[in-house]
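Before the break, one more example. Copy the sequence into your notebook; we will annotate it together after we see the structure.
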Amino acid sequence: MVLWAGRFSKDVDEDVNAFNSSISFDCRMYQQDIQGSMAHAKMLCQQGIIDEQALKEILTGLTDILNEINDGTLLFDPNAEDIHMFVESELTKRYPVSGKKLHTGRSRNDQVALDLRLYVRDEIKEVKVLLKNLIDVLTSLASAHTETIMPGYTHLQRAQPITFAHHLMAYAEMFLRDIDRLCDVEKRANVSPLGCGALATTTYPLDRFMVADTLGMSDIMYNSLDGVSDRDYAIEFANALALIMVHLSRFSEEIILWCSWEFKFIDLDDAYATGSSIMPQKKNPDIAELVRGKSARVINHVSGLLTMMKGLPLAYNKDMQEDKEQLFDALDQVKLCLPVFTDMIKTMTVHKDKMRDAAARGFINATDCADYLTKKGVPFRDAYKITGQLVAKCIEDQLTLETLPLDVYKSYSDIFDEDVYTAIALETCLKNRAVIGGPSPAVEKDNIMRIQKKVGDYFD
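Here is what the structure looks like once it is written out:
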């Protein structure tokens, strides 16, 4: 069925039809297309535009089509231009008169805009659940490691002592923001464009609010030009997906470092690593590396969507058909990465002794040594200089601040006393960092509970 057959005297060229077709990728929106058509038909009947018999046949036909696609007895026609034509053509085959009435007061422009919004809304819910699962694993693992000491880094140099829980919860915060960001996108996606028509609404007395309410949408698009041509929500969704991948990629980089022999903070379960075809000793963190690599792919889709939209005049343009493949692939990659990454984290082995040993080296308690002097009245800049000199002395004598003799301490400042060793102990360093947001075990336990509550609030 060619929708514009009345205007054209020739069939579309076969190659052009293949070039123009989107059924190969927009078929995934069949549920949303049928859902939108049902709501549209109910509204047409309520407004007296079609009769009850037509509505009954349309709803029956659409329900049958939906069920048959779901159970595999109805296959998508690769010759159909898009999912909208496929569904309408199938409906018209079954109910020739009523089927032709379904498209009354509707354009494919506002139809596809609605379908994509419904699809984004549905997929956001699924991605949020995947993020929740990851955060649940992180908070559970963090709860077991609130006193597992490890070095915190800046510039990949050992900097100050933290706990493994504190490090994990930094990522939990990122993924929590991802959920919050998706909730924002969901608000802007959940607005109905149906009734905007091709660009200037219609002369039929449509009840657009009824359609929106039937579909569980919060409002309607109030400008018909904007309604059919807005893809902000799709770009926002892609951007939110890209940020999820950025967070996964950063975490993957640390996993890759941590399981190397140079760190050996963790070991990945054999099910989430691979070997070498030539080197029998190798255990490669391929899953983390692939997640890191896929992040570039998703980030590029955001750039593609922005570039596609940047020069388009109002209203709809065929360029906008290119929104779906990029958005769909970005979504597919995120949904592929999140579950396997979650299971990789859940099954890894943590080497607390290796973390503690790394924290004991590298003078990561130097700031606490300076703070010790400051709290005894020495100006911080002077305390900073003295501590730096002590570190240089330790390096020269192959000692640590913990093993440096007291008489050497006193040779740099008479303020030092026996209590310096308690002040610079790693456990003390952590315990004293009890400011909200810090790595103190007590603070971290409260923070874990806060995150768990916030995640729960999103799904109540």
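The first strand starts at residue 149 and ends at 154. The chain is about 60% helix and 5% strand. Try to locate both features in your own notes.
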